[in-house]
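Researcher: I'd like a structural prediction for the single chain below. Treat it as a standalone chain; there are no partners to consider.
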Amino acid sequence: MNYCEEKYNAKRYIISLNELNFFKELQKLIDAMDLNLLTQVSLYSLIETKYKKYNYEEFNKIKSKSIDFVIADKKSCRARLCIELDDTTHNSKSRKKRDNFLNELFESVNIKLLHIEVKENYDEDIEIIKQTIIDVMSESEY
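Model: Treating it as a single chain, here is the predicted structure.
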């Protein structure tokens, strides 16, 4: 057995069951609006540190974090709206601290971030997301 076979396994699923249920509902909306829907996107794919050289402290704050869902333009693949699906783990002190950091971070880089609570039915949330997408897409592009 080689080193990798000994140390690693493939994850069975990319996203949780709660995320999958939300994804299915969100995908219908995204298809109708001709956008891209991405899942589990790393923060460093969305956001970069201002001073790239030797900026390890700031990079370390984002390197291991991901966003549950990113809605992006099809043409440019520019992130227009990010969504965090909040389950009961978001009630912990450490998770609240992480969420506060994400809220501040996304506001500072002018990318809209929505928090949606896990539910059995997302009809109301989908309407809020749809209106948010319309609002965000009407803003000028950089």
